[in-house]
Amino acid sequence: MDQKATATLLDLAAKCLLSNEPSAIHALEELPRDLFVPLFIAAFLGRHIKVLKEMVKVWPFHCLHIGTLYTEETCYEILEAMIDGLQILPAQNSSTWVPKLRILDLRQDLDYATTCSEVTTTLPFCFQSCVYFQQSIFKIEETQQNVSCFKIVNSESEPHSAWEPVELLVDLSISDTLRTKQFLSFLQSKVEQNFGTLHLCCRGLKIDTTSADKSILQFLDLGCIDHLEMDQADLSEITSLLAQMIHLNSLSLSDIPFKSCKGIHFRTFLIWLGKLENLQELSLSSICLRNQLHKLLRVLPPELDTLYLPYCNLSNRDVTALSQSSQATQLVLLNLSDNQIFSEVYEPFQILLEKVSDTLQLLELNNCLITDSVLSALLPALSHCSHLRVFSFASNPISMLMLTRLLQHLTSLMELKHVIYPVPVHCYEHWDFHGRLDQQKLAEVQAQLKVMLQTAQREDMNWTTSPQ
């Protein structure tokens, strides 16, 4: 019997068992280890909250990751039940049984299995263990291994602690919604009840509004956070957090008030931004950076590979600064949408394209007033971006003739799979997209591009228009 058939039988058995929740919970005491993962997956997808809580209590592996099971529809009740099932300390009525689960990972991760392999004998047993918190599992086991390697352990060594630390890995969103507030309050209560034995390790933090209750922050070790996303906050508030989040590798800010993007607030922000040595991704949206981008680039790590700067009112001077920066030759993802950087000259961006040609995989230039003449001048440099996978330039006044020329040039880029193009101007009553769209003309455009792709044997390329 092949693995696929075996997996199907296990799934069917799990669903059958879950049809009677009391029986399923009772069966956990005798359930073989190999059946825990398929039963957990079925229970999670079927929202069997009581079963999930009991499974966490007796989970026979060191770690549990919900990973790909997490969706936008995942309810707080499921997460709370799993957290409630955590056995932080051995049960009071048990002198022998010790809970094995030490890492409960409630984050959405598309690349991580439900539990880690336990074949390896090297540390750490789970690569998602916190590496910054001093009392984390990773730190404790690293210390124990070092002690063992240097043969310091002897009969007089201190005994192991009666408890083993438990890590709860989460991504948190702070907002004003009632259910979110209830969940954050629930987390606070858990941390307070298990102070010193439960490490709440927040890796991703999103703060939606400045009015949101941020009391949860006092229960977090901000040094653990590697992704911060904030909206509508003053730079002074952002800077106070950056001073504590020294291990950030991703920072996303949007709708920052204009008055805080200059003077002492901006200079202080740049100072702390320059201390983020691990930063690889930076997204600044709706932040006025006109003629100031060079100051920003000067403090960013040279290894920065993702830069999103939509609605930042950038100038040609800013594009020149970007093309001359140390980051230019490292960029993998670049978004300069909604900046009128082609209204004067195109040469600065042409130079930038040449600099990023060896690394760039995603390029977004939506609504940048790119005309036929500009795109024609950029074609040679764009054709040299051999690793480009996604190119989006929607909402630009491009003719059908220029669009066909572009397709002919881009079909040679074998890694390019997705192109989001603007509806050609002849499909509108007015070139500025405010006129009525002629659906028949658009259908003819799509049909012609499809034939051209087939002729070029590039049916693997997906050319689409974005909603206007």
Please, could you describe this protein's structure?
This protein has helices spanning 3-18, 21-27, 36-45, 49-57, 76-85, 137-149, 178-193, 235-242, 263-273, 293-299, 316-323, 347-356, 372-383, 400-410, 439-455, and strands at 63-65, 103-105, 166-174, 198-207, 227-231, 250-254, 281-285, 306-308, 333-335, 362-364, 390-392, 418-421, 462-465. With 468 residues, it is of the alpha/beta class. Helix 4 runs parallel beside helix 5 and helix 14 runs parallel beside helix 15 (439-455).
What is this structure's SSE topology?
Layout: H1 3-18, H2 21-27, H3 36-45, H4 49-57, E1 63-65, H5 76-85, E2 103-105, H6 137-149, E3 166-174, H7 178-193, E4 198-207, E5 227-231, H8 235-242, E6 250-254, H9 263-273, E7 281-285, H10 293-299, E8 306-308, H11 316-323, E9 333-335, H12 347-356, E10 362-364, H13 372-383, E11 390-392, H14 400-410, E12 418-421, H15 439-455, E13 462-465
Parallel strand pairs: 1-2, 2-3, 3-4, 4-5, 5-6, 6-7, 7-8, 8-9, 9-10, 10-11, 11-12, 12-13
